[in-house]
């Protein structure tokens, strides 16, 4: 799946679902880092991709929260 498709799917998620995915990715990243230290990881590029995807998810969540604050501010 291409990055743009993944990002489009992530943008359709609710804040809660997105937060859950971020936590899930962070747990995977911790496990992969531990495996790397133990010499079990063969594909170290996966660490970078997990880290970058987590950052993208956080950015999307920040955008959603900011948009909600602006919307609430303009209504109030």
What does this structure look like?
The chain has 76 residues and is mainly α. 84% of the residues lie in helices and 0% in strands. The protein has 3 helices and no strands. It has helices at residues 3-12, 15-37, 45-75. Helix 2 runs antiparallel to helix 3 (45-75). The longest helix is centred in the last third of the chain and has 31 residues, at 45-75. It starts with a helix and ends with a helix. The model has no long low-confidence stretch (mean pLDDT 92).
Strand/helix succession? HHH
Helicity level: over 70%
Q: How far apart are the first and last residues' alpha carbons, in Å? A: 41 Å
Shape: elongated
Give a brief outline of the structure:
Helices cover 84% and strands 0% of the residues. It has 76 residues and is mostly helical. The model has no long low-confidence stretch (mean pLDDT 92).
């Amino acid at each position: 799946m291409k990055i743009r498709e993944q990002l489009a799917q992530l943008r359709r998620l609710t804040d809660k679902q997105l937060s859950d995915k971020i936590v899930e990715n962070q747990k995977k990243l911790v496990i992969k880092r531990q495996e790397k230290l133990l010499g079990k990881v063969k594909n170290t590029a996966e660490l970078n991709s997990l880290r970058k995807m987590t950052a993208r998810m956080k950015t999307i969540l920040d955008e959603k929260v900011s948009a909600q604050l602006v919307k609430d501010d303009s209504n109030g």
